[in-house]
Amino acid sequence: MTNPQERKLNVAVLLGGDSSERSVSIKSGRSVVQALNPKIYRVKVYDPSVDIPRLMRDAHELDVALIMLHGKGGEDGRIQGMLDLLGIPYQCAGPLGCAVAMHKPMSKVLFKSAGLPVAPDLLLHKGRPLDIKHITSLVPLPVVVKPATEGSSYGVAIVKKKEELLPAINAAFLLDRQVMVEKFLVGREVTAAVMGDQEPEPLPLIEIIPSEKYTFFDFSAKYLPGASQEICPAELDEKQTRIIQDMAIRAHQALELEGYSRSDFILTADGPFILETNTIPGMTETSLLPKAAKAGGYPLPAFLNKLIDLALARASNNSPNSCSIQF
């Protein structure tokens, strides 16, 4: 753990950005800034939508970055690639892991190759003809329609009637050039976070129960206080808990992730199915990851200490082959 007797570390907190999840990113970033111990860290805040030139000028002074950017531009590998060029370590996966995890269809390919159960789906491409009858013959209703690379359930719709399918697809195409139509799975929604690199530590599971007002864990159910019941640790038996935690570890490894991740599952009558993996989970007052970390013995300040230590250790291990651009 970082030694308070040593010089303060200069930490860049990246928040905001220009994705559809900007408001959540700002809340996550502010929570992180408040949780960082001022006796150990000197914090500088950057909003990439306006602060890229300042970040580049300050790069030589920064010891580590905490990326709290959700959605495109933050979780898709672009900001990670820039930080690599600047020689600034960061707490999450690198460009490849983030890009693959952000692209739901590609991540499902890797999940399947790792033996993880996934829901059947069909990938649609903007500009190509849509045959609703053909789609429903391949993925029968009810289905979940989701943009391929959005987060926080933006553009996601549960479709139970054939006449609702085309409007849902068109709405998703407003956000992405690829849209996934996926079989709707009935079961309990569980999320599993892990912390670490090649051999991550599993954190306690959380079961998510949206209130009757919400049909699923959508954006409002995620971020409005009291909109969902979140049970941590999830009330599952030891075997079920172990299976889902192991699947979260395997997903983290299959996507070549680092630092931490949070994978979402549906526990059906046939067992758990993985939905997706998040490389930069939310850190707001209603977010799931801080709850799991706290239940696992890591209050948010201690959890951030651990993530920073992991980032610095990776940078140290990679230093012989690393390069950076000076401005």
Automatic annotation (TrEMBL):
Q: Which residues bind Mg(2+) 2?
A: E276, N278
Q: Does the keyword Manganese apply?
A: yes
**GO molecular-function annotation terms?**
ATP binding; D-alanine-D-alanine ligase activity; metal ion binding
Required cofactor names: Mg(2+); Mn(2+)
Where in this chain does the record put each ATP-grasp domain? Answer: 108-309
A GO CC term? cytoplasm
What EC number(s) would the UniProt record show?
A: 6.3.2.4
What GO terms describe the biological role, i.e. biological process, of this protein? cell wall organization; peptidoglycan biosynthetic process; regulation of cell shape
Q: How is its cofactor bound, per UniProt?
A: Binds 2 magnesium or manganese ions per subunit.
* Pathway the protein contributes to: Cell wall biogenesis; peptidoglycan biosynthesis
Which family does this protein fall into?
Answer: Belongs to the D-alanine--D-alanine ligase family.
Could you tell me what this protein does? Cell wall formation.
Q: What name goes with this protein?
A: D-alanine--D-alanine ligase
Gene name of the encoded protein: ddl
